[in-house]
Each structure stands twice: as C-alpha cells, then as structure tokens.
Amino acid sequence: xxxxxxxxxxxxxxxxxxxxxxxxxxxxxxGGIVPLDLAAKIADWSSRWGNGEIDLTGRANLQLRGxxxxxxxxxxxxxxxxxxxxxEADGEAVRNVxxxxxxxxxxxxxxxxRPIVAKLEGRLASDPKLHALPxxxxxxxxxxxxxxxxxxxxxxxxxxxxTADGPIFAIYYDGGEDRRIGSCNPNDVAEAAALLSxxxxxxxxxxxxxxxxxxxxxxxxxxxxxxxxxALGPKSRVARVTPAETFARIGVQSLNDSALPSSGEALxxxxxxxxxxxxxxxxxxxxxxxxxxxDVSEFRLSPWRAIVVPLSSLQSAHDLAGTLxxxxxxxxxxxxxxxxxxxxxxxxxxxxxxxTREDATRLAxxxxxxxxxxxxxxxxxxxxxxSAPVTLVGRDGLYDVVHNGAPSxxxxxxxxxxxxxxxxxxxxxxxxxQDGIA
Length: 438
Ligand code: SF4
What we know:
Elements: H1 3-6, E1 17-19, E2 22-27, E3 33-35, H2 36-49, E4 53-56, E5 62-67, H3 72-81, H4 89-94, E6 97-99, H5 114-126, E7 139-142, E8 156-163, E9 166-173, E10 180-184, H6 189-206, H7 214-221, H8 223-226, E11 251-254, E12 268-273, E13 278-280, H9 281-292, E14 298-301, E15 306-311, H10 314-322, E16 340-342, H11 356-363, E17 373-376, E18 388-395, E19 398-405, E20 413-416, H12 418-434
Helix pairs in contact: 2-9, 5-6
The chain binds iron/sulfur cluster.
C-alpha cells in the first residue's frame, strides 16, 4: 500500500488514514441508517481486523480504528460484500451528507427525506465535477422534525418547511438564519447542491485554493453576492414549525405524543450517547444484541455522537435503557460528559501528547451547567473545530487554555498540568455560580 492510499484528512474505506493506533477506516453508511445485521458485521470487523475501538464521528459516520496495512484488504472485501464500498475513492471522499436521524419515522417531520438523501449521496458519488470538493465539505438535510440539524456545522444545509403549496427546502450556507440563500423543491435538492458546489468550486479556484470551506467563501465574497448565485428559488419567510431544541437527543423520548398511529410506526426512541464518540467493540456488540431483543431492525447515527434507536413503544425504550451500562453509554441528558468534547488524543493520534479522553472524563464533573469544555490534543481541534467557552489545548504533555475561542487561538494560560487545569475549571465554575449563571 502506498502512502497516498493511507494518508488523508478524512478517511474512508478506499482511502484509510494513518493514525497513532493504526489505520482509521471510516464507514459512510447511507443516510446514517444502520440495519442491525450490518451493525453485527461491523462489530465482527472491528474485532477481527481493528483494535476493538469504534468511533461515532461528528458527521454521523462509524469508523474502525487500529486497522493495519495487512488487514485492510480483508476488511475492504467484507465492506464491499456488505454493499458499502463506493466505486471510487474520490466519490467516497465527497459523499458527506448528514440526515435527520429520525428520517421517515418522525410524525412531526415535513416529509420523508430518505429518498432525497439517497439521491444527493448518489449525485456526489457519481458526478466527477463534484469530486473536486474538499473532503471535509459537508451537506445536511433536515426533515423539519424533532431532531433538527440547525446547530450542525455543514457547508450547505437544506431544511424542510411546510408551505401552503407543499414542502420546500430552505437552503443555508454554513451558519445561522442570516445565511439563508434561497429555497428549492424536494425533487431539486441534489441539483441545487450541485449548483451551489459549482459556485463554491469556481470561487475556490479563483482564490488559488485559499477558500477551503463555505464559511471562507462567505467571509471572502459576502452573502449579498452569493445569494444571487444560480437559479435558486426566493427566500421563504416560512418558519420552522417544530423547534428542534425542545426535543432531547439523549434518553427515552416520545416520537408521537398522541395515540398509537394506525400504521404501527414507532412511538418512542432512545438516544444513546457514546462518551466522546468512542465505544469498545464489546459494548457495541452488547448494544446490538440488546436492541435486537426488541421489534427493531435498525438504528440511526446522529451527528451528536449519539445512536438513536426507534422503538415501538416508550416502555420498550425504557426497558432497553435499563439494559445499558452508564459507563459506556450516556442515557441522561444532564450527564456532564455531554458538556465536553474531546478528540482521540494520545496515544490514538500521533499529533496528541495528552490522553484527552481520559482527562476529559476526569474534568467533566467540574464544568458548570450550561457551559462547555473542549479538550483538544493539539491546535487542530478535530472534535470541536470552533469556539468554546473553555478549550484545553494539549502541547508537550501539558495544556494551554483558550477562553471563548477556537483551539488555534491565542491561549490565556500556558503549560498547565492536568491538576492545574482542573483547578482553573473549578474557579470558573465557582465564579459562574457566584454570578448566578446557570
Ligand atoms: S486535535 Fe490534534 S491530537 Fe486531537 S485528533 Fe486532531 S490531530 Fe489528533
């Protein structure tokens, strides 16, 4: 295997990435929908050809860690037999679509987005013109239901809205409401994505590659200029019906607060957080077997490092939750581990010098409610590449501290031991409570 086939910023099955614990093989599972028989195979692959560690990424992909140059061909063959292998590495690299985790199941959704997501993924994989997109370039398709994607970083986000004339998709560039650039019909999502991608690529080329993501494009060119791009529909004034933040992503949740739908579709779901997006294969296998005891054929991957299991009743969701160990799974929306992001760090990542996940586990209880801590192994900030109230940045086995900034920004404190960092967090939390900040 050549270096070119194993290096890369975003690993895939065709182009794994080298890390401190071996090769990372990311599985881009269509729509984030994982049939249970596929989940069982993934557990087997991790045991046989990986190191038994599985990540759930911020883009709702599963990735196997600790694969070797010797074992990757057998793994790739198994992935192909499971129907998950793309035709080519460039298409695999850009097939980055995050879908609403309850797609097709949520009675509160505007429409079933599964065929729309499948069409978009197919377009990205098969259109060579789009293969020039950066491998980190990402789309989100939001069905307008309970688990909204408004806070998910995606270069281009489509959000379903109900109008008197039927469903439409509002289109956003990376960012908030002020970055809505137009709208399109459900049948035109893939075409609109291709059009906006071509606009991005044109500006990227003109910039000599300096424009790497859509947020760079907006900063450089400006929304006013970009809003006129192509044949997109007008901005819609229709607001989202269901405020996503009112529905918890973790724990036992109702999918339909009223009577059982006559169709017999799921009434409840269980959001299962994986601490810092990592799970040991034994726990993953136990989860798959536990889920299999219910009338369930699949689970869903979410971009919040949580698995979503749709169930036929709330009682089943409670029963399933009762079988899962708190050590390995987060089932309580107030669990302090949800207030921390941590990357792989040392020894899993060659760039890390601190055991970020271990340290994050120790520090989680010190974070004030409503605040957020990012423990980053280095200034790249893979787990949370943006601003956080407090960011610890590993350097030479110690931590620098950035306040209200991204990991690459100038630190307020330098070279703290873990104990010193913990004391600093205690002081911040004490001040928060003295100031009456929740
Ligand atoms: S932030 Fe640095 S240490 Fe952490 S996973 Fe990314 S490259 Fe590795």
